[in-house]
Structure formats: C-alpha cells, structure tokens
Design brief:
With 158 residues, this protein is mainly beta. It is built from one helix and ten strands, in the order ββαββββββββ. The protein folds into three domains: 28 residues, no CATH class; 61 residues, Gp5 N-terminal domain (OB fold (Dihydrolipoamide Acetyltransferase, E2P)); 32 residues, no CATH class. It is 8% helix and 30% strand. The strands form three sheets. It has a five-stranded mixed beta barrel with strand order 3-4-5-7-6. Strands 8-9-10 form a three-stranded antiparallel beta sheet, with no helix packed on it.
C-alpha cells in the first residue's frame, strides 16, 4: 500500500498506528477469504435439518458458526454431535466434505422417519413408524440363557 493510499482507521475513537495497518489488512482479508486446509480434519456434526443439510464445526473454522457440508456418506439426525473425518473442496475451509464418520464404541442408534428394514436373503426385520415390528424368516429361533419372556395384549401361537 502506498503512503498516499493510507487511510486512518478508528476503533472506539482511538486511532490505529499506521504500522498496524498492514496487520489489519491481513486480518480483514482472512475474514473474507477461507483459509486453505489440506489433509483430514476431525470435526463435529453440529446439525442436520429436515431437508438433510448437514452443518459441521471444526477447530480450523474461523467463522462464528458451523459450516454447511457436503457428504460422501449418508448422514441423518442420529449423527448429530458425532465426530466426522473432513476434507475440503479446493482445500477451502468454507467447503467441508464429510468423508466418513469416526467409529465410536458406544451404542448405536439408527433412526428412520417411516420404516426401517434389515434384510438378508429370505429373512427380514421391519420396524414401522406405528410401533409394529415384523420378523420374517424360514426358521426363527429365540434363545435365552435365563428367562425368555413374551408379553403382549394377546399372544397367538399357531
């Protein structure tokens, strides 16, 4: 910046020292432009809205709020607050891409808005939104080392 181009900046009625103007320019430019990030960054899935848009936050995020992310894997509301491996489109910090979810040994909860079905060959387990559970297969075996308890309003055998 030439001396003739210098402007006086004020903050709470105090003048900036012209020597700090270059530093101020760098700070202003860095808030406008994303920083470049290469490699994998571990972030947190901070939100998933009804339309499936995913927001993530990470330590290198200098914005004041989480950033909209693309994803290589399916993400839903059950993944909120889970750690994710992030990379960045064109290495730009405002363009995160979720590469995968970090494995956690805790219990897993899988959610679905309507029905959830697990299938393998001729067998399946279906959970319906109305509370109905359907288990199908050629042979269904129930084993218990202690009590095998079946409860219901009415129990039909055969």
């Amino acid at each position: 910046m030439h001396n003739s181009d210098k402007k006086q900046f004020t903050l709470q009625d105090e003048k900036f020292d012209p020597q700090n103007e270059e530093l101020l320019s760098v700070i202003i430019d860095n808030t406008k432009n994303p920083i470049h990030i290469s490699g994998i960054v571990i972030g947190i899935i901070s939100d998933v809205d009804e339309s499936g848009q995913v927001m993530v936050d990470f330590s290198e995020n200098f914005l004041t709020k989480p950033v909209l992310a693309k994803s290589m894997v399916e993400i839903n509301e059950s993944h909120k607050n889970q750690k994710a491996a992030l990379m960045f489109e064109n290495n730009e910090s405002d363009k995160p891409v979720i590469m995968g979810l970090m494995h956690t040994p805790d219990n897993r909860i899988v959610t679905a808005k309507k029905n959830l079905t697990i299938k393998c060959g001729k067998s399946s387990i279906e959970l319906r939104e109305n509370g109905e559970i359907i288990i199908e297969g050629d042979i269904i075996t129930s084993r218990a080392k202690k009590n095998n308890i079946i409860k219901g309003g009415t129990i039909h055998l055969n």
